[in-house]
Amino acid sequence: MDQDVNNISVGAAIALGIGLLIVAWVVYDLMMISPLGKNEKLFAVISYVMIVAITYGLTRMLSGRAAYIHVGAMFGTIMAANVWMRILPAQKKMIAALKEGRKPDDALSAQAKLRSKQNTFIVVPTVFIMISNHFPGVTYGERYNWAILSVLILLGWFAAKFVRRA
User: Fold this and answer.
1) Alpha carbon of 122 to those of 80, 81, 105, 126, 140: distances in Å?
2) Domain extents in the chain
């Protein structure tokens, strides 16, 4: 919290942080299971606009450093929830089908693969956010810290796309 940014109470900051993590996962998951989840480019554009809006809002409520940490926590929560709530349950069902001599559901495989791919695109910006903590003068400490983080996220997505091709 930074009183120069916003006079938010400790309780409100805690509620904001916890609420962000929960709402971000629910919105992300609903987007993924909707028809939008099948359109990767549109999904990326809408997600990016939402992330920029969240980043901007957080930098108006919290210190720049706290905003960056919250965005990183949001990404980490989404990645962990993808693994524990979508990828592993799908894998368990596929393994159970094989043990029972049935063909695994291709939809489960596709779902797990897509979530895994999404995690690849989320992890690179998350690493950039972690590194940014060491460079406050050019990241969260700047006046346009929200725009810098938005660019870092976009660069992270491009880097992840490159890594996935290798």
Assistant:
1) 11, 12, 26, 6, 19
2) 10-165
Whether the model clears a pTM of 0.85, i.e. scores above it, the answer is yes
Please give the single-letter amino acid code of residue 70. Answer: H
CA–CA distance, 161 with 154 (Å, rounded to integer): 11
Mean per-residue pLDDT of the chain: 93
Rounded to an integer, what distance in angstroms lies between the CA atom of residue 109 and that of residue 126?
26
Q: 125: Cβ–Cβ under 8 A, 6 or more apart, which residues?
A: 75, 152, 153, 155, 156, 157
Q: Percent of the chain scored above 70 by pLDDT?
A: 96
Residue for token digits 């999904």? Answer: 43
Residue type, 81: A
How many residues does the structure list for the chain? 166
